[in-house]
């Protein structure tokens, strides 16, 4: 199974709780208490080589030209066939998903970039279509729905522009819910707000500004302040300059042992060393909605990035819920199903809402 590029070991010491008043609506359970992760090794030739190989691996396989033929093309098609055998299409197997969800409360979790919007060269231009926004709005009317993104909270809210959703920005380190929710079983879920890494805010801001200065000599590099993490996008950086960019990022991190380097789709991310990710955010939101330890709940998580694997793994290990990977190309994953692109995500949401409405109508007639 694919693992996020972070050392999995868990340190013993817990990070001190911030002195500011708690921002969550209730005391978080033991499962969401903060612990710290060690910084992954950045120095040494083998470590640098590993990171560069990982950066290459994060680049989606590029489609071969129409003129390409031979064993390489055959291998690509074989890999695609193998992916579909191990992780079937969520659309082609929709009836199976609907059957598993029958009689259960569906809770939707959606990544943003690459899931609700296409991956684009300029992160500030990753807009979702009106048709997608309508599909997400209708999903939220029928199921509790959350956007779980690496983006800073205010930015992803501005992209989506739907007040009725739950939002988890900065990989789940900044969580906010709607003031009113028609779905939550728990009264405390109203306006739920949780920031498990608030003490890192000044540090992240300083690192962001330092990265801006340190990487400005690398053409195409773009640094983004995602509030609780800083992102260095290398989608527009020539591959021959990746090594230089990595060294620039590494030189900044050396002075911050409480920060760690992780990697997503064409992006290097600097995050606090607390043990918190999209999987923890999923668990926290289920808890705050009042669905913790409920056997009649069906979480469905759709995402395309390595960071979404943490959420897929939570669902897989719990034996409850469905993970759907968005990808056109073969990947090892903890997800159960796949969808190829955002347009298929939209189609899946539309079908799910239609199925829910049919179920509701059938029950009302009984």
Order of adjacent strands in the largest pleated sheet:
5-4-3-2-1-10-11-12
Largest sheet: 8 strands, mixed
Strand content: 5-15%
What's the number of extended β-strand segments? Answer: 12
Number of helices: 10
How confident overall, as mean pLDDT? Answer: 81
Radius of gyration: 21 Å
Provide the helix percentage.
25-40%
Distance from first to last alpha carbon: 45 Å
Structural class: alpha/beta
Low-confidence stretches: 1-34, 61-69, 72-77
* Overall morphology: globular
List the helices and strands in order.
HHHEHEHEEEHEEHEEHEHEEH
How is this structure best described in words?
The chain is an alpha/beta fold and 366 residues long. Helices cover 36% and strands 15% of the residues. The strands form 2 sheets. The chain has an 8-stranded mixed β-sheet, sandwiched between helices. It has a 4-stranded antiparallel β-sheet with strand order 6-7-9-8, with helices on one face.
Produce a short descriptive summary.
With 366 residues, this protein is of the alpha/beta class. 36% of the residues lie in helices and 15% in strands. The chain has ten helices and twelve strands.
Chain-wise SSE layout:
Layout: H1 45-57, H2 71-86, H3 94-101, E1 105-110, H4 130-142, E2 145-148, H5 153-160, E3 166-169, E4 174-176, E5 193-194, H6 201-215, E6 222-225, E7 230-233, H7 242-253, E8 259-264, E9 267-272, H8 278-289, E10 297-303, H9 309-318, E11 322-326, E12 337-339, H10 342-365
Parallel strand pairs: 1-2, 1-10, 2-3, 10-11, 11-12
Antiparallel strand pairs: 3-4, 4-5, 6-7, 7-9, 8-9
């Amino acid at each position: 199974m694919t693992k996020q590029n972070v050392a999995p070991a868990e340190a013993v010491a817990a990070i001190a709780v911030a002195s500011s008043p708690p921002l969550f609506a209730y005391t978080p359970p033991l499962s969401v208490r903060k612990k710290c992760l060690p910084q992954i090794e950045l120095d040494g030739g083998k470590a640098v080589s590993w990171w560069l190989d990982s950066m290459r691996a994060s680049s989606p396989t590029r489609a071969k030209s129409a003129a390409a033929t031979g064993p390489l093309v055959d291998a690509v098609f074989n890999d695609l066939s193998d992916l579909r055998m191990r992780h079937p299409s969520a659309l082609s197997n929709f009836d199976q998903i609907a059957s598993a969800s029958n009689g259960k409360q569906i809770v939707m979790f959606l990544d943003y970039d690459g899931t609700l919007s296409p991956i684009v060269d300029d992160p500030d231009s990753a807009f979702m279509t009106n048709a997608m926004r309508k599909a997400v709005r209708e999903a939220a009317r029928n199921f509790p729905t959350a956007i779980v993104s690496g983006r800073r909270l205010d930015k992803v809210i501005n992209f989506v522009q739907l007040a009725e959703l739950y939002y988890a920005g900065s990989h789940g380190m900044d969580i906010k819910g709607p003031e009113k929710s028609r779905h939550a079983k728990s009264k405390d879920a109203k306006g739920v707000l949780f920031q498990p890494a608030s003490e890192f805010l000044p540090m992240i801001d300083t690192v962001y500004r330092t990265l801006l200065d340190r990487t400005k000599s690398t053409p195409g590099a773009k640094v983004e302040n995602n509030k609780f993490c800083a992102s260095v996008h290398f989608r527009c950086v020539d591959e021959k300059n990746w090594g230089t960019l990595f060294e620039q990022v590494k030189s900044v991190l050396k002075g911050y042992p409480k920060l760690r380097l992780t990697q997503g789709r064409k992006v290097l991310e600097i995050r606090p060393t607390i043990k918190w990710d999209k999987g923890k955010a999923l668990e926290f939101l289920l808890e705050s909605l009042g669905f913790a330890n409920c056997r009649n709940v069906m979480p469905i998580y759709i995402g395309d990035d390595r960071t979404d694997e943490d959420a897929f793994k939570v669902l897989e290990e719990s034996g409850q819920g469905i993970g759907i990977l968005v990808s056109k190309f073969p990947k090892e994953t903890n997800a159960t199903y796949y969808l190829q692109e955002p347009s298929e995500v939209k189609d899946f949401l539309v079908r799910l809402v239609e199925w829910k409405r049919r179920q509701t109508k059938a029950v009302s007639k009984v």
